[in-house]
Amino acid sequence: MEKFSNQKIGQMIIDGAKKRGIKDAKAVVSHSRSVSVLFRKGVPDKVEDSGRRSVSVSLYDNGRYSSSSSNDFRPEALEKFLDSAVAMTKAMEKDPFREITDPELYKNRKNIDLELYDKEVDEFSTQKRNDAALESEQAALKAAEDKAISAESSMETSTGSSYKIHSNGFEGSVKGSQIWLFTEISLKGGGDKRPSGWDITGGRFVSDLGSPAEVGKGAAMRAMQKLGTHKISTRKCPMIVENRTVGRLLGGLLGATSGRSLQQRASFLEEMENKKVGSSLLTITDEPFIKRALGSRLFDSEGISAKTMPVFKDGVFENFYIDTYYAKKLKRKPTFGGSSNLIFTPGQKNLMELAADIKDGILVRGFIGGNTNGTTGDFSLGVYGTLIENGKLTDAVSELNISGNHKELWNHLVAVGNDPWIYSSKRVPSLVFDEIQFSGN
Prior knowledge:
Blueprint: H1 2-19, E1 24-40, E2 43-61, E3 64-70, H2 75-91, H3 119-122, H4 126-144, E4 148-166, E5 171-187, E6 196-203, H5 212-224, E7 235-241, H6 243-254, H7 259-263, E8 284-286, E9 309-313, E10 316-317, H8 324-330, E11 342-344, H9 351-356, E12 360-372, E13 378-389, E14 392-405, H10 406-409, E15 413-416, E16 426-427, E17 431-439
Parallel strand pairs: 7-12, 11-16
Antiparallel strand pairs: 1-2, 1-4, 2-3, 4-5, 5-6, 7-17, 8-9, 8-11, 9-10, 12-13, 13-14, 14-17, 15-17
Helix pairs in contact: 4-5
């Protein structure tokens, strides 16, 4: 019934736009619900149950364009919504590059079940939610023993659906679910230091949820890894970036792959297509068809049919993410407006085995502050982590800084782990770089 209702409203928006003289239109009708509980000191500290529904419309009228949204689904309200949206479009300046997606890009859409929705997430009870959050919080406090100051654990389930329709032939719907358990703890660290740690589990299906107790223990372990942290001297040495942390470093590289940055001459990868920008271990593929994965899709936000796309292959940069608007500006063919699942081709060794191969180095467990210049590729990042001595993890270290340029950094990639971080659409394993300059004392 919900799907039919979404279809009916979407078609009404498209028909209404045409009747008002609009050449082309896109409509999206969506519904979502999120339920969460936060446990602190053994009791629910916050409980939220929120629902949202919305209808949005994008109008294209001979170079004029606008996008509007509303959460009022009453027929009379939708009529007024359309009147307002059309009036706004007519008042816009013309932009010759604003056109609806080429219907040729809708073709060859795969007809497969990506398993993005689990009805058990919808049916997950309040009691189960409370029990999991409480168990994880208590496990964190127990694992930290007398060092714990406080802990909190949150459990959230969310479901949603959307229906998309375009005036030039696109139609598609998506239904998805997610379930997450997150726990964080802070410890007494000496003086005014309050080291903290977190852990997480979840995914699209209830069966993706790991042990609440292990999540709590994991959060405590992460916090204890920061105890006794100290500064070290400036040095140049190998660097391992832990899987859950790589995303921050990788973001500086991926940010330069956008069509918008390319068109505005703000990408350090502008002249680097089909050229080597990293070591042969740098292979990242946009893979939209992984079942149950967080970024999986059959089409992107513009309706372009999904396909596997290499981004970097054996160190060579191969594709920008270019939507239809910037493709027209650049006089190029569009790829996609954004990524699906980014898969970094893994290696053969786990984190401890990677560390065992290093005589003296630093395992980066997190970044603090810093920035990346998307135009030049220059970066400067604060880091903390663990010292590696003779292949063993030893002291906690902090207040370090690394700086350089992404076009140089990725050529120093010398090893890749077999431990991709699964709690993100970016499935990236731990990475090892050689000859990294750390600024310390």
